TrEMBL record, chains A, B:
<keyword id="KW-0456">Lyase</keyword>
<feature type="region of interest" description="Disordered">
    <location>
        <begin position="1"/>
        <end position="20"/>
    </location>
</feature>
<dbReference type="InterPro" id="IPR016938">
    <property type="entry name" value="UPF0317"/>
</dbReference>
<protein>
    <recommendedName>
        <fullName>Putative hydro-lyase EV668_3632</fullName>
        <ecNumber>4.2.1.-</ecNumber>
    </recommendedName>
</protein>
<dbReference type="InterPro" id="IPR009906">
    <property type="entry name" value="D-Glu_cyclase"/>
</dbReference>
<dbReference type="Pfam" id="PF07286">
    <property type="entry name" value="D-Glu_cyclase"/>
</dbReference>
<dbReference type="InterPro" id="IPR038021">
    <property type="entry name" value="Putative_hydro-lyase"/>
</dbReference>
<dbReference type="GO" id="GO:0016829">
    <property type="term" value="F:lyase activity"/>
</dbReference>
<comment type="similarity">
    <text>Belongs to the D-glutamate cyclase family.</text>
</comment>
Amino acid sequence: MARSNALRQPSAAPQDVSNPLGARLAIREGSHTGPTAGMAPGCVQGNLVILPKYDAADFLRFAVANPKPCPIIAVSEPGDPHLAAIGSDLDIRTDVPRYVVWKDGRKTEEPADITPHWRDDLVTFVIGCSYSFEQALIEDGIEIRHITEGCAVPMYRTSIPTTPAGPFHGPLVVSMRPMTPANAIRAVQITGRLPGVHGAPVHLGRPDLIGIADLAKPDYGDAVSIRDDEIPVFWACGVTPQSVIATSRPRFCITHYPGSMIVTDLSNARLSVS
Amino acid sequence: MARSNALRQPSAAPQDVSNPLGARLAIREGSHTGPTAGMAPGCVQGNLVILPKYDAADFLRFAVANPKPCPIIAVSEPGDPHLAAIGSDLDIRTDVPRYVVWKDGRKTEEPADITPHWRDDLVTFVIGCSYSFEQALIEDGIEIRHITEGCAVPMYRTSIPTTPAGPFHGPLVVSMRPMTPANAIRAVQITGRLPGVHGAPVHLGRPDLIGIADLAKPDYGDAVSIRDDEIPVFWACGVTPQSVIATSRPRFCITHYPGSMIVTDLSNARLSVS
């Protein structure tokens, strides 16, 4: 893929992916191709939704009406791939390891670069991601099971509807982390201070009440083990827009590939409201 | 019982129990004799533990080591029945509707006035009470079942030990309020801001994990109904000291009678840490 400026040339030295610009450059150069978990610790990573201007206003209304699954971190000007407010030299077309291109609600391609798809009318939405609150939980001594087990967080489509806006509608997707009740209470307190990255859980303890029949069969991600003294704790999930896009079928859309996020310069610590 | 100053004389006009001094005077005069729930709305009510000086230092260490069941609102000077910091013209000997006198860990009397028992070495502890956080939950639109059902909150001795200090030890007592999972999450956030009145719950969803075999058989208070879509939510309870006194058997102690609290001038709103 042609890269147009000097920073996009492969550099002789490997990038330092512990800082956010280094992480983005490593991804841009193709030296990092997998999930972004663990890159630039302490920095906010974001879910991505890119839509043409004619759908973007409705999607922004959808996000505002559904702040728990879709906490907005940034919205670009139409056609501008550089979101300077969230990252220096950031290029949204090349700085995510893998994307999903959607046409009429169907996935058509999963490229590592969307420069060929770029258009002057595309608006980029960066949406808060659970990596930020997982860091806060780990710092408080709470084990995150899917991290311990080295897999993706289990995610489930629920019977909870999102609030529709324009063409956008569909069920809430939640991520699940098993915890002891005492840790679940602590996790509510910790994540409740972080509304910019999904905030407090939306549900706990009773998957049947939100339409989840079997925790061992997630709709996205991987199943994790749940111990006898644990309850499942559910957070609104940034994969909700992808489920909504599949349901609402906009003509054209690009999202990140689950787990392959945009790494920003924003500090997780800055997201706390208290 | 002889009352020594003018304010303790029955007044011609009934006291206004919607303000805290009026509530205390109505209790002192004997015109209010039952539970204090609903008196002086918006004001902090407190659990009471009164101990001789030789046990008081250990009990203070016990309270500091167990802040969730024993959040300290005030501690008196030895022998001083007036806690001016928490109420004007407050007299701890007469301003609680009913007391329990304990000798060697056994209840010996449940008087309406402890003036005959007063000694120059008695230290008064006022401990935060769930009435304050229940008000905050109700203001947020959360139903409190035992209030709806017009009975006392159900309380249970648990398998969770308190942290011992000196002679004081014994199991944590919890109060239980059934809620939908979504309201339970909200309740964690609301009560977590109120550490001075028990703070966030200590447990939820799984009574078996904390040694509660049957929610229909509380150790104190009354059973309440639990709906199919609800989970039990447990808070550390200010009755814990009474259970601890029965276990630890100090030579002499006075507590309030459950439900008959000391009404203070402190505002519930001032207890919030954010």
